[in-house]
Structure prediction request, 283 residues.
Amino acid sequence: MKRMKKTLMLSLLIVISAGLVWCSWGLVWSGQTQGISSTPGTSGWEDNRLIAHALGEVEGASYTNSYEAFISNYNKGYRLFEVDLVQTTDGELVARHGWSDKLQPDLAAHGGRTVTKLQFENSLIMGRFQPLTLPDILQLMQQYRDFDLILDTKAGSQAQIREQFTKLVNEARNTDPELLQRMIPEIFSPEMYHMVMDIYPFPNKMYSLYKTGASAESIVEFARDKEITAVAMPLYRVIMNPNLVPALNKLGVKSYVHTVNSSRVKQLLYSFGVHGFYTDREV
Prediction:
């Protein structure tokens, strides 16, 4: 299995390198704009080509999901953000990608097993960035009403999915029900789709492929049948399933690739029909 993965990655690098050489020989980027934002608010959110990954990079740091990351990238013009959500041991949702030691070293001893909301919000990210809880995020959505939010929930079981989305929907309703119209949940499987939609019928959904080995045909069928707005995928999916993006385009379903921080790779993928990218920084 390890040998197969190495072979796959080597093949992928060769294909990308060949494509980049092709770009450097004069590939014309035909009218594809790199606009960060084109339509504010929830209507037309998918017109945005760039998604600020984990709220975007700030001061050279990525994956912070911090207040400063949001403000910095909002001021740069981003209007579509992705945030990672995990649950503390007292059941609260907070913005973190995982419980690695790097982000909050003073919580390293807990390993995420006994971290409460209070402990989390009192610990600066990398010693200098303000962490965000779900109420903080909802407050930002009230204060800045022209951005939309993609939700990457780090639930490991069906019970956790139900618990997290029930918590999220209830808090949003208590704060301002209209905020739910600007939230785009990442859906990782058909089973998750039904669980989430039973809790709240989100009008926009992002089918995210990084946790699934589903075939290109089943992905297209699911996107069509469930009226999925957009599909997010790792870069290798574009290469390994060359008909996937064109098939989604025929349905009017936008494709986003993650996480891309190279302008040349972006240009190459645009030529394959990819609509946009999760990115840490504008390049």
In short: Strands lie at 50-52, 80-87, 93-95, 148-153, 183-187, 206-208, 230-234, 254-258, 276-279. The chain has ten helices and nine strands. Residues 67 and 130 are 6 Å apart (CA to CA). Residues 1-11, 17-35, 37-42 have pLDDT under 50 and may be disordered.
